[in-house]
Design goal:
single chain; 195 residues; Adenine-n6-DNA-methyltransferase TaqI, Chain A, domain 2; 2 domains; four-stranded antiparallel β-sheet; three-stranded mixed β-sheet; 5 helices; 9 strands
Amino acid sequence: MKKLKDIALIKSGYSFRCRLRPSRHGNIAVIKMGDLSQNLNKAMLDRIDMQPVNLKHLVRKNDIILCPRGESNLATLVVNNFKDTIAVAPLMIIRLNQDADVIPAYLCWYINQPKTQSWFRSHARGSAMQLIGKTIIENLEIPIMPIAKQSIIASLFKLVEQEKELNNKLAHLYKACCQTASMDFIMNYSQGKTK
């Protein structure tokens, strides 16, 4: 077991002093709490105009974005190169050290496990809006196993997420088919074509 702070840099997302003003042609994409999902899509992110841009605030491939606020403290792995993208506070960015013996997908999987989520909840502060402090995140203990085993776990997790996504798409298609068939039936009935 290793503490997260021993294998990764944990930093807060960029803190704005004023409300964000989206700009269709902005130079920076912004990851907010509501954008987090297992399939983070840069094309769906708001863009803003931001000058100057400090490189230390930019999100990189294999960063893990953690939401430390609210009931669900899920983590999302940045799997693509998100050029010119920042995460906004209160989001936390977890960036594994180059010498870490942990792969990002495994760490993300571990953070999202019910046992880890329960541990976060037990250490959260606040009554109306729960918040996990940076020190708590840094002290999360990560079980370290051989990279090959981490890869197997990460691959299985990816397959489960893909299956969930396909099932959601199938459910939407089924609903659309049922709605179309129902409307066709109603139209035919109202025109006297069906008894």
